[in-house]
Amino acid sequence: MRDATRRSIETDVPKEAITHFVVTEILPHTTLLRLRLETGRTHQIRVHLHAIDHPVVGDTSYGDGPQYGLERQFLHAARLVFPHPRTGAGVEVTSPLPDELHAALAQARREA
């Protein structure tokens, strides 16, 4: 039975979804990526990474579930850029990696 909450790249009516990625660090059992989205489809990052057999760490729907002590997915919006809704001026917001993701990354680096 199909799960209505899941998305897939296997469809007769595909919608354009573009995700660019750069390998930041190769770890013993996973890879740290920096991603840039051109589109904003539901679950886009999760679906694209699942499709290339590199699911998001901690993803219970498209991946292997909890890992590295996380109770969440290892996804973080480090930088968002968008036009201001009233003025159209560019807005850029940044956010450092949260402590729980730093801890998970440290654990992933230690596992050999």
Q: How is this structure best summarized?
A:
The chain is α+β, with helices and mostly antiparallel strands and 112 residues long. The protein has two helices and four strands.
Low-confidence stretches: none
Total count of helical runs of at least 4 residues: 2
What's the mean pLDDT score?
90
Query: Within the CATH hierarchy, at the fold level, what is the topology?
Result: Pseudouridine synthase
Q: Could you state the CATH homologous superfamily?
A: Pseudouridine synthase
Number of strands: 4
Q: Any idea what the shape is? A: globular
Largest sheet: 2 strands, antiparallel
Our count of domains comes out at 1
**Strand arrangement, largest sheet?**
1-2
Q: Report the CATH architecture.
A: 2-Layer Sandwich
Query: Any idea what the radius of gyration is?
Result: 16 Å
Q: Helical proportion? A: 10-25%
SSE order in H/E notation?
A: EEHEEH
Distance between the termini: 38 Å
Structure report:
The protein is α+β, with helices and mostly antiparallel strands and 112 residues long. The chain has one domain: Pseudouridine synthase (2-Layer Sandwich). The protein is 18% helix and 22% strand. It is built from two helices and four strands. It has helices at 44-51, 99-110, and strands spanning 19-26, 31-37, 79-83, 90-94. The strands form two sheets. It has a two-stranded antiparallel ribbon. The radius of gyration is 16 Å and the shape is globular. It starts with 18 loop residues before the first strand and ends with a helix.
